[in-house]
């Protein structure tokens, strides 16, 4: 499954009403570390059918960025049942993101 672009219009249906945990990438096109993280999250979305991976452009969706209390990007949040259960700020390698996801889902 490819990553899903989330806007304020589809946030409710794609994130809050998801039947799977959702890994949300809050990013911007001008952010170098965000560009490095993009392909990593794309790989995770293709490999992991048990989670949904979504992307929110903070410049296009400042309201959603505010809801996540984004102060630095890239900001990755894992949501399950409308609650943030894990977060990561800055570029992290794939193994670190998967460890965060797996640790949060097991806990």
Structural summary, described in words:
The longest helix is centred in the middle third of the chain and has 16 residues. A five-stranded mixed sheet has the order 1-3-2-4-5. Helices cover 38% and strands 25% of the residues. Strand 2, helix 2 and strand 3 form a beta-alpha-beta unit. The protein has one domain: Glutaredoxin, CATH 3.40.30. It has 107 residues and is α/β, with parallel strands linked by helices. The protein is globular, with a radius of gyration of 12 Å. The model has no long low-confidence stretch (mean pLDDT 96). The N and C termini lie far apart (25 Å). The protein contains four helices and five strands; from the N terminus they run βαβαβαββα.
Element layout with pairings:
Blueprint: E1 4-5, H1 11-16, E2 22-27, H2 32-47, E3 52-57, H3 62-67, E4 75-80, E5 83-89, H4 94-106
Summarize the structure.
With 107 residues, the protein is of the alpha/beta class. The chain has a single domain (4-99), classed as Glutaredoxin (3-Layer(aba) Sandwich), CATH 3.40.30.
Query: Whole-Å distance between the termini?
Result: 25 Å
The top level CATH class name? Alpha Beta
Largest sheet: 5 strands, mixed
> How helical, in percent, are the residues?
25-40%
Rg (CA only): 12 Å
Which structural category fits the helices and strands?
alpha/beta
Give the SSE order as H and E letters.
EHEHEHEEH
Shape, principal axes of CA atoms: globular
Count structural domains.
1
Total DSSP E strands: 5
CATH architecture: 3-Layer(aba) Sandwich
How large is the count of helical segments? 4
CATH fold title: Glutaredoxin
Strand content: 25-35%
Spatial sequence of strands, sheet with the most strands: 1-3-2-4-5
| Overall pLDDT metric | 96
- CATH homologous superfamily classification: Glutaredoxin
Poorly predicted segments: none
